[in-house]
Design a protein that fits this description.
Radius of gyration: 19 Å
Mean pLDDT: 91
CATH topology of the largest domain: Jelly Rolls
CATH architecture of the largest domain: Sandwich
Bound molecules: fe (ii) ion
CATH class of the largest domain: Mainly Beta
Number of helices: 8
Oligomer: single chain
Structural class: alpha+beta
Strand content: 15-25%
Distance between the termini: 42 Å
Length: 306
Amino acid sequence: MTALITMPENQMRDKFPNAPFRARHDLSGHPLFALPRLIELARSMDRDRIEYCSGDVEPNQDPSTVPGIDLSIEETIRRIEDCQAWMVIKNVEHDPEYQQFLKSCLADVARAAGPDAESLEDFQGFIFVSSANSTTPFHVDAEQNVLLQIRGDKYLHVFENEDRDLVSEEDLEISPSKHRNQEYRAEFERRAEVFEMAEGDAVFLPYMWPHWVRTGERYTVSIAVTWKTPSVKRLNKIRFMNATLRKLGMPQRAPGSVPVLDGIKVAAYDAARFVIEPLRRSERSRRLVRQVLFGRKANYYYTESQ
Ligand SMILES: [Fe+2]
């Protein structure tokens, strides 16, 4: 089968999965990314899988002042050329066609990673539809991913953060009540590696490397093909428990500092998840679980009326 994504052999050997690098794909013009198909996809998704707002924001955007878009989801996609919007359709793996597509992409990455690499699990797909000159504020993602630029130009600013000078360990902790946006300062920019992306370009983004994005002069469509390895899943569990314990007044040290405690946190997380997971099957119950456990803010990105 022809590969959808080409991950360069030398970069896979030298950088994967610990540093970002360029890759290529062969998907421009793929029917799954045409606007009418994306409208159909958006219509079929639960409302909490779609987040959209104005793209006219700053890398250091205060989440409470993000301007909204006074259009329906469908109208926003239809008018993406001129409505200055930013949209993400989350978890597109719930649609069987996109699921198939994601599986093929993952198979390409896994093949390039080789038999000795960690397994790529829990794959998810996030499709971004943005007007020209739109900004995705500074944030981190708790997974590994390949961003595929399907249409238009994008400038992806990526930052190494091993010393935690840009985003602290506390800010890397995971809680649904936290907004994704992180504090960004202009002086960070000298540490940025900027990937200019056009149709056919892809970038591998390591786990929790901070980044912000600006689109070019045309509207853009991209997909983040994401996955978690067993070690990423473990780190996420510890960071989730650290956020929860901090909220209870018991701040914790970074993952890896006290291995015994890390093990206890992972076990506690697994036990809680076992109870909660069956309650998260519908949009209504997910909303309720988020609200009960993490407060109203956990549903920050959408309201019932949208
Ligand atoms: Fe991201």
